[in-house]
Write a structure and sequence with these properties.
The chain is built from no helices and seven strands. Strand 6 and strand 7 form a beta hairpin. The chain is globular and about 45 Å long. The two termini are 18 Å apart. By secondary structure, the chain is mainly beta. The protein has a seven-stranded antiparallel β-sheet, with no helix packed on it.
């Protein structure tokens, strides 16, 4: 739909799911430097997809980097997920290696 790149197409692991929404997006993750100063670091650009499993109805957020193919976002949507919207971005708490991490999608 959006990107014409190889990595913008749906791929392995998505066969049993339906895409309910997709949009080109840039993803940032909040991290802290050595001094403890927080800053938003860009993870990449790709097609953000909201996926729905065809038999279980489980839903997830998925985004693969358009230029490298690396999976940037891949986690289930759960009832406690409370995204917030500002003028240019959606912010939410995701999970990375078992830790809660703030993400921003623009």
């Amino acid at each position: 739909l959006f990107g014409q790149g190889h990595y913008d197409k749906e791929g392995e692991g998505e066969e049993s799911e339906t895409t309910t929404h997709e949009v080109k997006a840039k993803v940032f993750r909040l991290s802290t430097d050595k001094e403890g100063t927080p800053s938003w670091n860009e993870l990449g650009v790709g097609i953000l997809r909201l996926k729905k499993h065809k038999t279980t109805d489980k839903r997830r957020v998925f985004l693969r980097n358009s230029s490298t193919g690396k999976i940037i976002l891949n986690f289930g949507i759960y009832s406690a997920l409370k995204p917030s919207l500002d003028k240019k971005a959606i912010s939410f708490i995701g999970h990375d290696a078992g830790k809660q991490v703030p993400y921003r999608v623009r």
